Automatic annotation (TrEMBL):
Family membership noted in the UniProt record: Belongs to the SdhE FAD assembly factor family.
Keywords for this protein: Chaperone
Organism: Sphingobium terrigena
Name recorded for this polypeptide: FAD assembly factor SdhE
Pfam family, one: Sdh5
Keyword Chaperone among UniProt keywords: yes
Organism phylogeny: Bacteria, Pseudomonadati, Pseudomonadota, Alphaproteobacteria, Sphingomonadales
């Protein structure tokens, strides 16, 4: 992790969502991809962080449809959930 205050703040927010499920999903997504994000993708993630945990998990699990405003390459990566590591 670099010394960029914005990225440190985003990392903290990603891992402290309020539910364990969203912490793993959003925090894991951040850990896997943040180092390759450009300014536009960082802005997308910042907006994404403002969404409700129930919606994010619903999108991830496919129980509710992803709104058009969130569709695109970043959401496609998120929906793979191949970055989630669950510890016992």
């Amino acid at each position: 992790m670099n010394d960029d205050p914005q990225m440190r703040r985003l990392k903290f927010r990603a891992w402290h969502r309020g539910t364990r499920e969203s912490d793993y999903a959003v925090g894991g997504f951040f850990e896997r991809y943040h180092s390759e994000w450009n300014a536009e993708e960082i802005a997308w993630f910042e907006r994404f962080m403002d969404e409700q945990d129930a919606d994010i998990i619903g999108w991830a699990l496919g129980t509710i449809p992803v709104p058009d405003e969130w569709k695109g390459p970043m959401m496609d990566k998120f929906l793979k959930l191949d970055f989630v590591k669950i510890e016992n």
